[in-house]
Amino acid sequence: MPHHTNWARNVEYSAARFHRPTSLDEVKEIVAKAKAVSALGSGHSFNTLADTPGDLISLEAFNPEAVLDREARTVTASGGIRYGELGARLQAEGFALANLASLPHISVAGAIATATHGSGCANRSLASAVAGLTLVTASGETLALTRTSPDFAGAVVGLGALGIVTSVTLDIEPTFTVAVSVYEELAWDTLLNHFDAITGAAYSVSLFTNWARDTIDQVWLKQRSSGALPVAGQRFHGAVPARVQRHPVRGVSPEACTGQLGIAGHWIDRLSHFRLDFTPSQGDELQSEYILPRAHAAEAIQALRALAGRIAPLLHIAEIRTIAADGLWLSMAYREASVGFHFTWKRLQPEVEALLPILEEALAPFRARPHWGKLFHAQAGHIATLYEKLPAFVSLAERLDPGHKFRNDFLTRHVFGG
Ligand SMILES: Cc1cc2nc3c(=O)[nH]c(=O)nc-3n(C[C@H](O)[C@H](O)[C@H](O)COP(=O)(O)OP(=O)(O)OC[C@H]3O[C@@H](n4cnc5c(N)ncnc54)[C@H](O)[C@@H]3O)c2cc1C
């Protein structure tokens, strides 16, 4: 079999067989026969969460149709569809998703499995848009769940541990436009004193920093047409409006970024930082992210600034975002209005992995939950202290996958223990 690596090329999947089924029956047959099996989305995770020694199933060739229900305001599509493709179809029909991650390249099932999120004090994780999903479970049977099903809140952020999500139904809304304005050199003290006002100043707000400089490099305000933006050309909390398009990483060409300079565009062309037809982010990188209750934002910022001397040399850029609380058991924002501290690292994995326990210790007092799809150190024993619903999730996994065919080394080490 050809080698399959993740997007970042720091993981080579160890699967004995790689499948691209085109029908539900094919998925059911592969899963029923497999001893060890996993789903691979678009491979944008930075760890071995998606790996298996057995059969790795990609849904990239699987039923790309998206079915719109205008009355129910939902769309149903294959779990393998990417947000970029789904978004273009929705936009053509006059509809939108409430939010996107920083890139539209990722698959819907892969994103919801890890509670991937964008930014915005009132915006929940992308998984919160899920109104229903169909899984092929270990026996090869299908299981359809909707918001009224008792297992639903446990199954959406499923970490790939419960089955292959072949179909997802997402909430949609009428299309809307967004204008993005970038401001530079926001003082740290201003952020600390006005954290809620700054992060709540637009529909979606992102702050970019390398932690070591005297100011926050960039503030990205993404405002819907219905909301008010600061007056063009005026400062934002003392930060200066950028007069040209910016990339979050200093010195990198901004051509991969979606439109800025306050020029409104469709949601699909603005909510992600990066354009579908370009390599997102820095491209040659690793990532980690820690999500913690927003009430601790200022203290967590102080703790990270104290480590700036160790963080900055390994960093391309870091991003601070807010995420609204949801009720999905393994969501990093489960029942907590949250703030996420994201790190885009240089490809220096041993050095990054040596720093992660130090970062995690500094953020431990704030109950920081690591992003499931990125690099982190925390082991199952510590993870168990962060998720009150973990025992219920373990029971659900035992019920749907009693032979543990969806379990891999990563899940054992970081989630199930043992
Ligand atoms: C450049 C870049 C930018 C990013 N930006 C953000 C961001 O803004 N916000 C954020 O939160 N994260 C971000 N991420 C992380 C990314 O969103 C997550 O890692 C996400 O899980 C990737 O989706 P994927 O389709 O590539 O999933 P994969 O990495 O392929 O898989 C992730 C998990 O999903 C499971 N899975 C995939 N498909 C299925 C399926 N059909 N059924 C069941 N389980 C399935 C896998 O088994 C695995 O457990 C970024 C990553 C990159 C590379």
Automatic annotation (TrEMBL):
One Gene Ontology term of the molecular function aspect: D-arabinono-1,4-lactone oxidase activity
Ranges for domain FAD-binding PCMH-type: 11-175
Keyword Oxidoreductase: yes
Segments forming a coiled coil: none
Keywords (A to Z) from UniProt: FAD, Flavoprotein, Oxidoreductase
Keyword Nucleotidyltransferase on entry: no
Origin: domain of life: Bacteria
Single GO cellular component term: membrane
Protein name as it appears in the record: Xylitol oxidase
Taxonomic classification: Bacteria, Pseudomonadati, Myxococcota, Myxococcia, Myxococcales
